[in-house]
Structures are given as structure tokens and as C-alpha cells.
Amino acid sequence: MSRFSIIFSALAVSVALSGCGEPQQSAAPTTQAMPVGVVTMKEQTVTLTKELPGRIAASQIAEIRPQVSGIIQSRLFVEGSEVKAGQTLYQIDPATFEANVASAEAAVAKAHASIASKNAKNTRYTELLKINAVSQQDFDEAAASFKEAQADLLTAKAQLKTAQINLNYSKVSAPINGQISKSSVTVGALVGANQTTPLATVTQLDPIYVDLVQSSSELLALKLALKSGAISSDESVQTEVELKLENGSVYSHKGTLQFSEVTVEPGTGSVTLRAQFANPEKLLLPGMYVRAVIVEGVKTDAILAPQRGVSHNNKGQATTMVVNKDGKVETRILQAERTIGANWLVEKGLSHGDQVIIEGLQKIHPGASVQAVPAESATAKAY
């Protein structure tokens, strides 16, 4: 190959290489909005409830004590059994009381006989006084004696009634229906009318009470909300109460709220509320710890935000991210003090129509452009 051919070939290669080295214009990148899953807020009607701690209390308790003194002759009940009002529980030896009744009856009979005699004398002296056959003094004494006999009869009748009452009291009866405890005395024991130790205790378990505790601040907030109309309640209907037992199960019978105390406990700042429940199975026993769910009222314009879309900032304020009308992320500070199911009840910060972001939160920031899609399909698009 000639020297000229070699130079020409080198120039050709140089030209080709220089053409390959010319810069090419790259396509401009396109910005695509990140899809995020949102839930659109809607006003809705919700029933507001409150869970409160409480203790079971018997509706009635009666301590059985003797009204008269004597020896226990017999015990007429089975310990732990159900007793009825008026049922005889103990028999105190009645011999002394029966003798007192007999003596009082004799005194009444004697008083009747004395009245008959003195009444006849008083009648006879009345006629004799008309013809001046007796003196006025004798007549007055006869009349006074008759009235004294009448008073003696009243006294004798009162003593007979007392003796009969004491005889009746020798039978110690149950004052209420309920379940009776173990007996503190046995047959042959001496009991007294003024003793401090009860013979037994009868406890009424059906119906039964639940004493609940609520803070005075919560009660005040509820009353103000009812007064302002933010919450509505039908005062003509008793508030329904649901009970949760110690093991977490729900009690099968629902109760009603009876009343709340009118004073606040200074030490705890709480108010006691009492609910009543049917207890036919005797499942609830005094002293048990329970939790009760009471209905406070109905809110007709409630905004419920999913808990998964709500977080808290460094100040402890509840916050959420929403998609504004410009399609950008915006942070909202919420006023939310209670949960309903899996949602926060929002008092301030959200309104009807707002789009709350609940999916794709880890890839966005305030001010970012996003594409709002229903939460169910956001995952398929974003991931």
C-alpha cells in the first residue's frame, strides 16, 4: 500500500470517530405525581359511648339480729340458700314469752271483770244521787273508780300486745328476699336483743347494682356538649349500660343507669354513677371488678378519621396529612380526644369532603404533588 493510501485511510477513520463523538440531545425527564391512598371524610351519625370502671354492689343487705334475748332453740335454714322475706330463720326458746302472754291475758280478763263491777256501782250511784240517797262524794268516788278500771284495761291490753310482740320476735325472720350467709351461732347459743354481732346476713343479688366512677371533668364536658346541642340525648329514656366482666366477656343482660352522685369526691375528683342489672344466674357478686359501657348521646355531624392516618407531633398534637384542592400534601393539626372503633372522632381540623391520606405516607412530605386514589387501589399503583 502506498504512503498516500495510508494517510487517506487515517483521515477517513478520524472523520468517522469525530462524528461518533458529537453530543446527542437527551429527552427531558417527566415528573409523575406519587399515588396515595385516601379516605374522603363524610359527616355521619354516631352513638357516643364511654367505658368506665366499676364495682358490683348488692341491691339490699340485711344483717339478722335478734329483737329479744334467749336461747337459740333451732336453726331453720340451710346456709348459703335462698330465703324469702318473712321466712323464719331461727327459733328462740319461746317458753318465757308464752308465759308473759298468758299473764297479760289474765290481766286483761281481770280488768274486764273490774270494769263490770265498777260500772254497775257507778250506774247505781247515779240513780241514787238523783233522790239524794248517796252523797256527792260517794258518787264521785264511784265514777272515778270506774274510769280507773277503764284505764287499767287499756294498760293490760298494751302489756298483752307487748308480750305478743316479744313472742313473735322469738321467731327471727328474714326481712328481705336474698341469699343467706353462714350462721354465726349454733343451737343452744345465748343471744341478746342488743348484741352487735349479726346471726347471719341476707344479701339480695337480683337485681344488683354496679357503682361506676367517672371524672368530674368528663362529666362536665358531657353536660356542656348536651347543653350546646353538639350531642343529643333523649332524657325520657333510661340510659342503657353494657357490662364487661373481669375475663373480658360481655355480660348477657343489659342494665340501665339509675342516678349519679351530686357531689364530687375531693380526693379523686370523681363522681359515682349507679347502674342496675338483672342477675338471675347470680353470676355477678358484690365486690367484683367490672367495666361498663354507657351511652352518652348521639352526634349527628361526626367526622371519623382512620387511626392509621393520624400521628402525633413533638408537641403531642394529633396530626394528619390531606390532599388539598391543588393536589398537594397538607398537614392538619386535629382536635381528637376519643376513638370510636378504628377511627378518631375529630372535633376540629377536618371537615366534610377532606381527603385524608392513609397509604403511601412514608414516601411523601408536605407540599409534594400527589395523585389521590381510593385507599383500596392505592397499594396496587404505588407498590
UniProtKB/TrEMBL annotation:
One of its GO terms (molecular function) is transmembrane transporter activity. It is found in: Cell inner membrane. Residues 61-203 form the Multidrug resistance protein MdtA-like barrel-sandwich hybrid domain. GO terms for biological process: response to antibiotic. It is a lipid-anchor. InterPro entries: MdtA-like_b-barrel, MdtA-like_BSH, MdtA-like_C, MdtA-like_HH, RND_pump_MFP. One of its GO terms (cellular component) is plasma membrane. Coiled coil: none annotated. Residues 101-170 form the Multidrug resistance protein MdtA-like alpha-helical hairpin domain. Residues 301-363 form the Multidrug resistance protein MdtA-like C-terminal permuted SH3 domain. Belongs to the membrane fusion protein (MFP) (TC 8.A.1) family. This is Multidrug/solvent efflux pump periplasmic linker protein mepA.
